[in-house]
Sequence to fold (385 residues):
Amino acid sequence: MHLRHGMFVALAVSAASFFALQAAQAEIKVGITVSASGPGAALGQPEMKAVGALPTEVAGEKVTFIALDDESDGTKSAQNMRKLITDEKVDAVIGSSLTPTSLPLVDIAFESKTPLMTIAAAGALVTPMDEKRKWVFKVVPNDSLMAAAIMNFIAKKGVKTLGYLGVSDGYGEGYWNELSKLAPKHGITLTTHEVYARSDTSVTGQVLKIIATKPDAVFIASAGTPAVLPQKALRERGYTGPVYQTHGVATEEFIKLGGKDVEGVIFSGEPFTIANDLEESSPFRKVANDYLTRFEKANGTKGNIFGAHLFDSFVLLQNAIPAALKSGKPGTPEFRAALRDELEKTKNVYLNNGLSNMTPTDHNGYDPSSVFFIKVENGAFHLAN
Fold:
């Protein structure tokens, strides 16, 4: 009798351990790889800090985040993603900060059938849609959307000749490709195609070549603090014409480092950057305030647009998780596949980056209504007229 009772207790303990293990395995795991050091640190550091602002429970399930630094290196970002999938058994991956560190992740997402939420900018990450890109979703508006909007704006200002200077990677080339296609349609001639590396400390040669063509305006395709260098060089060399940049400059650091030299810069950007200029009732203002409140509580500092990219990526996952849980448990191929399918069904989700509506052929999900024209005025970002 005693033995049988002991066996019962042992079985009960084993059963309890089994169900505890099952519960532990049921937690949702999200892997993150960002460029928190290296040339992309201006983007990756706020993204890394945004991890602390993310919800740790969705639909009654615990959510665990495993965040790694890829040092702005494509090889390292690929290693990080494989580690997150193989060792940590994550259900989805968010990353990376830069286009060069994100492109290697597309193949891994497809091979492992793991949803990838890229926070880089280049449209090539999700277009053209194919079997590999079916597993990739992008929260940053495509450069094609932003480029089309700003070129229309530039044309309306009467610009006929436009100098170009961009970073020598996927981000800059993405913008150059779009601008070179759009310019003729607006009767605009691109007078230069100058490039520089994000880590460069001088662009004097490139700027002198641009000024020599006497353009009506200059377009700079860069992001983060590296975007200040060409802006300052233009002004220091006496260029007084209009300068247009991309939404990659939407940080307080850009204004602080650029000072008077970045006054008047105009770019097409996300609602988050000018949320305070929107009406109190605007849904965009509400989501911006939610993100900023959570970020400040977690870090004691103000969040920026790059942190918002990571935050929005998880908002999309959070929106897809409840329905995906009906098809499989976290940690299973079924759950990952369902998560991918539900992300593709995203409808009318307001984000810091715009109004998201995904489809099987569009894994970016924005239209022109998500684009705002933004100007640096009196040391702050404001809606441009």
Notes: The domain at 143-269 is CATH 3.40.50.2300 (Rossmann fold).
